[in-house]
Amino acid sequence: MGRPDKRVIVSRERCYHGLHGFGTSIAGLPANADGYGRLIPDAELVPRDDWQALEALFAAGGSERIAAFFIEPVIGAGGVHRASPGYVRNVRRLCREHDVLLVADEVITGFGRTGEMFASGPAGIDPDILMFAKGVTSGYQPLGGVIVGERVSEPFWADDGELVFRHGLTYQGHAAACVAGLRNLEIIEREELVGWSRLLGVTLSTALAPLRRCPDVVDVRMGGGLMAAVEFTGADVAAAVAERCWEAGVATRQIGTGESLQISPPLSITEADLLWGCERLLEAAETAAEPLPS
User: Fold this and answer.
1) How confident is the chain (294 residues) per 10-residue block, as mean pLDDT?
2) 44: Cβ–Cβ under 8 A, 6 or more apart, which residues?
3) How many Cβ atoms are within 10 Å of 142's Cβ, its own excluded?
4) 228 Cβ partners below 8 Å, 6+ apart?
5) The model's pTM
């Protein structure tokens, strides 16, 4: 497009975009980048919910260097933080004003996790590029993809265009993975799992509410649908709760900087199993300070 100096990718603190070369370079979780050195130099971080910081970066001449801004509609591995409507609205405006591509990473939020097929639309993100994976096959096969808008695709498909997007992956378009993805999407539609996720999201929110009364719980955050996190007073407390959950038959993991536990049950879970799991989590949180029975 005649803008060869626009090479910088901007991402947000606490973001996660994979651990390949670029993903590690734009990681907003320090532990994911520790020890690697600087892989891709054209990367910058801004606070996760501060659009004025992005505006200041643009105003300082950044718009002449910045190619794209990456955003998760709901930060996942960073602790389940939803982007506020005002933040999204201003980020979208700034990207348009400064000719910066807006990229939505829906690897975690796509295909029903938040109670919507994709979270970008309801969040008001209106991306130029949308990335997906994981949920498209429910993890049964490794498959990911990129959806692009006309702003990105048109220069490559223009009748008089000579641009070539040189890329290639060894397993690109693999038949087995694509068949798994198509069949998985059929099941999601047939069993109406996106709507089920949205419905059970209300149940999940209600079931997690008692956790707010636990002295070691700092916050309970809902990402929409079947996506939530419980933040504790420290990583050691979260680890103790996770261990107690495991002993009780409930799997979870520490996210953020270790202080929060992830809640993302399968979209096909029954209401009874969801409530049972929340009860075990509550019991674990209430007894976190007590030693585990030998």
Assistant:
1) 92 94 91 86 94 95 92 97 93 96 97 97 95 96 94 86 84 93 98 98 98 96 98 96 96 96 97 98 89 67
2) 8, 9, 10, 11, 57, 62, 66
3) 12
4) 80, 204, 205, 208, 220, 221, 222, 263, 264
5) 0.93
